[in-house]
Write a structure and sequence with these properties.
five-stranded antiparallel sheet, 28% helix, single chain, 27% strand, 27 strands
Length: 542
């Protein structure tokens, strides 16, 4: 659904220009409503399976095919709808599409206990997408979404049986026993609609009424807290430019920018070295900082800042110099937060998200709780670790020193567990705590930016989710057996808790000093841990 002043504004630029004359645009009426019917065919191309036939038999059948598509744009009392047929969704102008409309309908129509399918996008620098089929009778909350910090991309299930819905299909089928209307809600809406002009217009009016007048189900309200901007959204160019302004000028106060890891770098070994370029500036460092990216950008003319960031690449390497995830655009190595009186956006892994006030308040509650709840032990101070040969203290140095000062801890830094899902291996934790807590350690400062914590939080989430598999837990036990045979004998059937141990070298670490995207990653971890009944805590290393 859209809200606009002109049906023609809803057409994509390719359709409006129609340079090759391949598309037909007809001004019509559907029922009593003005409409546009756009139709066209793709160019002729080979049938996909003929190559297999040629490989098997040596005979080229020479078959070709075209794809026909259409889109019907309708003005229903000032609310604009598009019905897409085939590839007709490509005819829509990206910036005019309300991609939240399907969810807006779903949170009003769907019965939370009858939701069967969920596709969700974790709002963290990991940018993980999960699609889950909910077992019958368990409902949406079987996946820990009661208090979630994730962008739900789509839902499908059955409508409330006590919600009056005046749709053509419901009137025709509602008399049947046990009838429940099924709805698929996402960026669009998949639902039975009338196929005559008058019945279709009537049904679209009913959808508008549902969104405008029906109250959101309180249990589903959180699904509206976060909205992802589409790849061609009208705001993206402005937001990208503002993010680059924040990067180039650290004195700009309307937001913040920092380092964040691209999604492909969350599985496998920890990055030991970063290699790449920002424009003509060479990146070759053990610790990637926002300042290094800033230097490269500022060496170019100001009008080339954004293009430089998009075209430059950085890759992460392991200890032997092998690439862990390949070259990735420098734009995907930063996270940004843009705050104005009218909006609050964050950039993660190249995508922009709009955050609602309810979401921000929810994240604040969870983060404060993680800081408040403390384990019954403390960790040694960071500076209790002897300086290494470079006169510095790295995380590796600290992790190896902790068991020397307190034998209750076991160092598992860089000990990888390999699975089918994680063939390169993943790091379960840096330290195993006195009560079998998984402890992940990170040092941050104003130079690295607290956004690197989103990597730390996502690592913990990967570990917990992976260790729910019995075989993976068995492999983890073997790693502990190699390090301390006596320890494995009292190890339980799963982790007793997840602890993020953080040292900030330049100023105190508090809930309010975390970037929004780091806070969101923490809440995503909290959601998963609540599902498994595993406590989450943050320990500040002095």
């Amino acid at each position: 659904m859209y809200r606009s002043d002109n049906l023609h504004e809803l057409l994509s630029l390719k359709i409006r220009e129609n340079v090759e004359g391949r598309f037909s645009i007809r001004t019509i009426e559907v029922g009593s409503s003005p409409a546009l019917l756009v139709s066209g065919e793709s160019g002729s191309g080979p049938v996909e399976w003929t190559e297999t036939v040629r490989s098997l038999t040596g005979i080229d059948l020479g078959f070709t095919t075209t794809a026909a598509s259409a889109a019907l744009f309708i003005d229903v009392d000032g609310a604009y709808y598009t019905l897409a047929f085939g590839q007709g969704w490509r005819y829509m102008r990206e910036g005019k599409v309300d991609r939240q409309f399907g969810i807006d309908v779903g949170v009003r129509m769907l019965d939370p206990d009858e939701i069967k399918d969920v596709t969700r996008w974790a709002l963290s620098a990991k940018s993980r997408v999960d699609r889950n089929m909910v077992p019958g009778g368990q409902g949406l909350w079987a996946f820990g979404l009661r208090e979630h910090a994730e962008l739900v991309r789509s839902l499908s299930g059955k409508a409330h049986d006590n919600l009056p819905i005046d749709l053509t299909y419901v009137r025709r089928r509602g008399k049947y026993r046990n009838f429940r209307l099924s709805v698929e809600c996402g960026e669009g809406l998949h639902i039975h609609l009338g196929i005559t002009g008058d019945s279709l217009v009537s049904d679209l009016r009913e959808l508008t009424r549902i969104v405008d007048e029906v109250e959101v189900n309180p249990q589903l309200e959180p699904l509206q807290w976060v909205r992802r901007l589409g790849p061609n959204h009208d705001m993206r160019e402005l937001l990208d430019s503002e993010a680059v302004d924040l990067l180039a000028d650290p004195d700009v106060t309307r937001g913040e920018v920092g380092i964040a890891y691209p999604s492909r770098y969350y599985d496998g070994p920890t990055v030991q070295r970063y290699s790449g370029n920002i424009g003509d500036f060479r990146i070759d460092t053990e610790e990637l900082s926002i300042e290094k990216i800033r230097i490269g950008v500022r060496q170019r003319p100001k009008n080339e800042y954004l293009r430089t960031l998009r075209s430059s690449t950085i890759e992460g390497l392991d200890g032997s110099g092998a690439s862990l995830g390949g070259e990735v655009s420098a734009l995907h190595w930063i996270a940004a937060e843009i705050v104005d009186p009218d909006y609050h956006y964050i950039l993660l892994d190249g995508d922009w998200y709009s955050l609602g006030d309810q979401y921000l308040r929810h994240v604040d509650r969870v983060v404060k709780s993680a800081f408040k709840e403390q384990p019954p032990w403390t960790l040694p101070a960071w500076n209790s670790t002897p300086l290494n040969e470079r006169r510095k203290i790295y995380e590796k140095d600290y992790n190896e020193n902790v068991p020397k000062l307190d034998g209750r801890f076991l160092c598992l830094d860089r000990k990888l567990v390999k699975t089918r899902v994680h063939p390169q291996g993943f790091e379960v934790c840096d330290l195993l705590g006195p009560n079998d807590e998984l402890i992940h350690v990170k040092k941050v400062s104003s130079d690295t930016g607290s956004s690197v914590l989103s990597h730390l939080f996502a690592q913990g989430l990967v570990a917990i989710e992976s260790l729910t598999d019995a075989e993976t837990w068995k492999e983890f036990r073997e790693i502990i057996r190699e390090r301390d045979p006596s320890r494995v004998r009292r190890l339980g059937a799963r982790p007793a808790g997840l602890v993020y141990a953080i040292h900030r070298s330049d100023k105190p670490l508090e809930p309010r000093t975390l970037f929004t995207f780091a806070r969101s990653a923490l809440v995503s971890a909290s959601v998963a841990l609540n599902t498994f009944g595993i406590p989450l805590q943050i320990v500040v290393i002095p």
